[in-house]
Design goal:
Layout lengths: L1 H55 L4 H61 L6 H33 L13
């Protein structure tokens, strides 16, 4: 019985380790996104100060319009560049998470079914038909879990291959 509790504890420990890895991955990608946002905001702030100074020294309305137009173009370029970087991070993160989740599902399902089989092997069941029914149920469940894992992985991979550009809102392959 102690060996079974140890096996359950090992499964729980692996699950916790996987959750910590996933959280770390999320934190790292969030930090990257925040760094980009801060850099873009800082750059736009500095540009707006320079633009305000340039506008205050404009000689006529035509020069002021040209300065504003150039400022608007530079602002849009910087915002779109930042959005592209963030979209790239999101795409990479989706791929990493998909791969990680797929691996965890595959490894985890095998370990869980192994633990369940070991649990039933140790039970004092004398009837061979009952043992065969339990084994058949476990095998059917294992096959179903493997198919679900494969389907989930394929669906997640298909999802990560569809990117949505921040500028148009239309999806593309």
């Amino acid at each position: 019985m102690a060996a079974k509790l140890e096996q359950i504890n090992d499964l729980q420990k692996k699950g916790l380790e996987a959750a910590v890895q996933l959280a770390q991955l999320s934190i790292e990608n969030t930090q990257r996104v925040i760094e980009i946002q801060v850099a873009v905001a800082k750059s736009l702030f500095e540009d707006s100060i320079k633009n305000a100074k340039d506008l205050s020294s404009a000689r006529d309305a035509q020069e002021a319009v040209q300065l504003r137009t150039r400022f608007a173009q530079n602002t849009a370029e910087k915002v779109f560049a930042g959005a592209r970087e963030i979209a790239e991070i999101a795409t990479q993160a989706q791929a990493e998470v998909g791969k990680f989740v797929g691996e965890q599902l595959t490894v985890g399902s095998h370990e869980v079914f192994g633990a369940i089989q070991n649990l039933f092997k140790g039970l004092p069941i004398a009837d061979q038909d009952t043992l065969n029914a339990i084994q058949s149920t476990l095998n059917t469940t294992r096959v179903a879990m493997e198919q679900m894992t494969r389907a989930s992985s394929e669906a997640f991979q298909a999802f990560t291959q569809v990117q949505v550009p921040a500028t148009t809102g239309k999806s593309r392959k």
